[in-house]
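tmp note - Dynein axonemal light chain 1
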Amino acid sequence: MSCGQAIKAWEAKNEAVAEEADVVKLYAQVPPISKLDNSLNTLKNCEHLSLSTNCIDRISINLNGLPKLRILALGRNVIKRIEKLEDLAESLEQLWISYNQITTLDGLADLKNLQILYISNNNIKSWAELDKLASLPALKDILLVGNPIYADYEKREDARVEVLRHLPNLMKIDGQMVKPSEKEAALAPAE
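out:
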């Protein structure tokens, strides 16, 4: 199914005009959306766009027609890398991209207003990838559980401390508030 077809189906189901809507949910389409197309750029008032649970393998278009987009949900697809989000640099506050095949955190550096990044159950293997997020001043909440970077840690608490070593301004990791003891442990030299 194309994005254009999914938008038309959404309009029929919701008896609404998609380009006027602030929330557009195109998740779990049957047949699934396999490719993003420029029909998404007609959603000029959209603040929350859900494309989760489809078969999207890449972010193949610029999203310059979505100036108000604050929440982009792309979880449960087959996306391998994050790209073409530069046009959302001023507006995007939340990126939900868990359960994909992402190996690198390239492509996020321009998202200065990003507050929440849900990227669990991907294929992030290196702690150095988290350093790429250090330039995001608003980032306060991250979901990383289910990535290979946690594999060497028997205790989740130890992994959380390592996350804080790379991203000390976080307030929430893997769904739990950061504890003062974790902040202190992150400041201590690594063993």
